[in-house]
């Protein structure tokens, strides 16, 4: 397995233009029989080439044009399209005012999340960020940032709530969340906070584009110990899904998305059907 660790100095986020440009650059190189090593040498860095072909970094227009020449791309319109994608890949997102509170390794995922058509996630320790009630999120954020003052905590909460707007847009992404039951039964803050979170999930189950499954405590399988998120930004066979794995205070974006897609499919099979989720949530509320 080849894993690309995100350079912490990368200041930009993953966007649609990056993924489209990545697919086109990868296709051009492969169709012309150019090795990654040769293409990397043309722009002075093999890791940079791989990052460009994955869509996890902004692309310098000069590098893109150098690759276009290496791949014998002479069509003016095609070269102009690559140039426009390269320029678009460097645009900033709405989250720039919150940049001091966003770790660099999270930026590619954040860009993909906000441009997504499909988001599939599995969580074991807490409710997924996009499904958190404000009171629940505030408690989780305080626990993850023990040294932060009230102003910073408020900004971090504001950022998380702003991210959730994506679920309420005119054309929202399809969100499919699989949550381990231990995360839902774990007391977070006061009983009222836990109640609000469970009731919030009940409301979210009513949204046609949101699917929530719960893996019951009785499941005997060995479950993944860390969150898994798969994001499909574009319905294009050449544009790969973004796999985001977070562990402790870091994250990485592995190449083998098919293996993680299989893992998510398996988790969906062993979890309770989505139709059972409201009943399970009501049982948990009654037990508070």
Note the main attributes of this structure.
288 residues; alpha/beta; 434 Repressor (Amino-terminal Domain); Endonuclease, Chain A; 2 domains; 7-stranded mixed β-sheet; elongated
CATH C-level category of the largest domain: Alpha Beta
Q: What proportion strand?
A: 5-15%
Which structural class should the secondary elements be placed in?
A: alpha/beta
Oligomer: single chain
Total helical elements = 12
What characterizes the major β-sheet? 7 strands, mixed
Average pLDDT, rounded to a whole number, is 87
The gross shape turns out to be elongated
CATH architectural category of the largest domain: 2-Layer Sandwich
Show unreliable segments. 1-14
**Percent of residues in helical segments?**
40-55%
Sheet with most strands: strand arrangement: 1-7-6-5-2-3-4
Give the end-to-end Cα distance, rounded to a whole number of Å.
Answer: 44 Å
- Report the C-alpha radius of gyration, rounded: 21 Å
Order of helices and strands: EHHHHHHEHHEHHEEEEHH
**Number of separate strands:** 7
InterPro entries: DUF5753
Pfam families: DUF5753
Domain DUF5753: 109-283
Protein name: Transcriptional regulator
List the helices and strands and how they pair.
Layout: E1 3-4, H1 16-31, H2 36-43, H3 46-54, H4 61-70, H5 76-88, H6 107-114, E2 118-123, H7 134-144, H8 150-164, E3 174-180, H9 181-185, H10 191-204, E4 210-215, E5 228-232, E6 242-247, E7 250-254, H11 257-270, H12 277-286
Parallel strand pairs: 2-3, 3-4
Antiparallel strand pairs: 1-7, 2-5, 5-6, 6-7
Helix pairs in contact: 1-5, 2-3, 4-5, 7-8, 10-12
């Amino acid at each position: 397995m080849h894993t690309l660790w995100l350079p912490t100095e990368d200041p930009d986020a993953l966007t649609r233009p990056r993924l489209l440009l990545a697919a086109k650059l990868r296709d051009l190189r492969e169709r012309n029989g150019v090795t990654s090593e040769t293409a990397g040498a043309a722009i002075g860095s093999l890791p940079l080439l791989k990052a460009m072909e994955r869509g996890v970094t902004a692309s310098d227009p000069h590098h893109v044009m150098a690759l276009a020449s290496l791949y014998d791309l002479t069509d003016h319109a095609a070269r102009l399209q690559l140039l426009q994608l390269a320029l678009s890949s460097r645009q900033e997102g709405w989250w720039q005012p919150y940049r001091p509170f966003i770790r660099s390794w999270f930026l590619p995922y954040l860009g993909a999340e906000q441009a997504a058509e499909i988001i599939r996630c599995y969580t074991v320790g807490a409710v997924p960020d996009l499904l958190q009630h404000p009171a629940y999120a505030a408690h989780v954020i305080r626990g993850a940032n023990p040294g932060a003052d009230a102003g910073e905590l408020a900004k971090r909460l504001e950022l998380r709530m702003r991210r959730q707007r994506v679920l309420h847009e005119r054309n929202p992404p399809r969100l499919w969340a699989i949550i381990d039951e231990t995360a839902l039964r774990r007391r977070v803050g006061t009983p009222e906070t836990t109640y609000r979170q469970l009731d919030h999930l009940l409301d979210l189950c009513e949204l046609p584009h949101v699917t929530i499954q719960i893996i019951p405590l009785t499941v005997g399988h060995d479950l993944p110990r860390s969150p898994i998120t798969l994001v499909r930004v574009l319905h294009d066979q050449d544009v790969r899904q973004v796999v985001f794995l977070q562990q402790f205070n870091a994250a990485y974006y592995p190449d083998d998305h098919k293996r993680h897609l299989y893992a998510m499919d398996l988790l969906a099979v062993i979890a309770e059907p989505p139709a059972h989720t409201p009943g399970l949530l009501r049982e948990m509320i009654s037990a508070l």
